[in-house]
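Dear colleagues,

For the upcoming journal club I promised to circulate an example of a predicted protein-ligand complex. I picked one with 5-O-phosphono-beta-D-ribofuranosylamine because it came up in last month's discussion. The inputs are reproduced below in full, followed by the predicted structure.
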Amino acid sequence: MLVSGTGTNLQALLDTVHGREAEIVAVASSVAHAPALARARERGVPTRVFARAEHPDRHARDRAMADWLQQRAARLVVLAGYMELLGEPFLERFDRAVVNVHPSLLPAFPGLRAIEQALAYGVKVFGVTVHFVDAGVDSGPVILQRALELPAAREPREVLDALRPLEHSLLPDAVRLFAAHALAPDPHNPRRIVIDPGAAAIQQ
Ligand code: GRF
């Protein structure tokens, strides 16, 4: 997993799929002292910090991080509040095996401050997306989405608090589906990710 901050999504995975349908084998952070790191250590998951300043450039940092993740035999890379972009070479090494959780109904409001963008636009329906990561910003194929009507919301904090439980159930569901090999691109439209009907029970 890649993190930069609080790590509530990491915690949700530690509390649900970890040691059951999947194993969290490593947690890398772009930020030293990110609270997420303590959550991983608490459960005995190896952690490492890959700070930008310690590498000649972004690609060197990505390379070092990919090496470490592959040494730990990671098959899926989960971005959970990871605040950096990943370059093509990293994504090629984890082909169709990098996922991200984003607090909007993509393609609306990609990038930073998604909830603030949605409030400024005046939407009445918010939501969460889990998607495969490509080289763009929150632009890869959608795996799971869930919407929430909040017609009276005004404050980012109240929207975030309302979306948290959605994130914390959608991300583990996506990891379970990946672990069960239940995700595949539609041959007629590779942007559309088809969920194996036999795995429907996996989503909780
Ligand atoms: C989440 O809101 C996620 O959607 C976004 O970054 C936040 C990470 O939160 N990509 P946490 O560090 O998992 O608590």
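Two points we might discuss: DSSP finds six helices and nine strands in the chain. Helices lie at 8-15, 35-42, 58-71, 88-93, 114-121, 156-179.

See you all on Thursday,
B. R.
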